[in-house]
Design a protein that fits this description.
single chain, alpha/beta, 4 strands
């Protein structure tokens, strides 16, 4: 059986194919946004940056870490599990990414970061993580 676009669309009842086809354009737009955005992370400079997120939410951190690796003045690592590295502390920046804001592993890592006194940046569309971010300021 040869896989064709028609065959794929006959099995798909969602917009997944459209999302996959649009992905290159989304990456281009994200790069432009990134290039034009100047971030000021309060509390810096940091000893390290840890990005936490799973699946599609974590891929952005991986791409960003690779893009800035040559210019970064501190280590940038990406973790996709419940636990943060032991070195995370008050001189760390933890970026927690979850589209839904309800990813269990990312919430656990975010809670650890807060408990260790790290500065936390949240990237989400809602859920518990957004609630936590609003509560913590």
């Amino acid at each position: 059986m040869r896989i064709t676009r028609l065959l794929l669309t006959s099995y798909s009842t969602s917009t997944m194919q459209q999302l996959i086809e649009a992905f290159p354009q989304q990456l281009k737009e994200a790069l432009e946004i990134g290039r034009s955005t100047k971030l000021n992370a309060p509390g810096g400079p940091y000893a390290n940056v840890v990005v936490t997120g799973l699946g599609g939410s974590g891929i952005g951190g991986r791409i960003a870490a690779q893009l800035v690796a040559a210019e970064a003045t501190c280590p940038i690592e990406v973790y996709s599990n419940y636990y943060l590295p032991a070195y995370v502390g008050k001189n760390s920046l933890v970026i927690a990414c979850s589209y839904s804001g309800n990813t269990e592993e990312t919430i656990a890592a975010m809670e650890q970061a807060l408990a260790k006194g790290a500065r936390v940046c949240v990237i989400t569309s809602g859920g518990k993580m957004l609630e936590m971010a609003r509560e913590k300021g």
